[in-house]
Amino acid sequence: MRVWQVRGGSESNEPVGWKMLLLDEALGAKLTTEQSQAPRQGYKRGDKGMQSITCEI
Length: 57
Description:
Residues 33-57 are annotated as: Disordered. By secondary structure, this protein is mostly beta strands. Helix content is 0%, strand content 14%.
């Protein structure tokens, strides 16, 4: 999945921004009360980096 990380650590040492994650390696997710800033800069509907797309939100 491609996600927008709002804070925290990452292997790339970039705490914010677009990240590519394997679903079976995701450690968790958290809903926040922060207002969405979607669509974020760099969002690409039908992202060619995805093997398959089930849902785009």
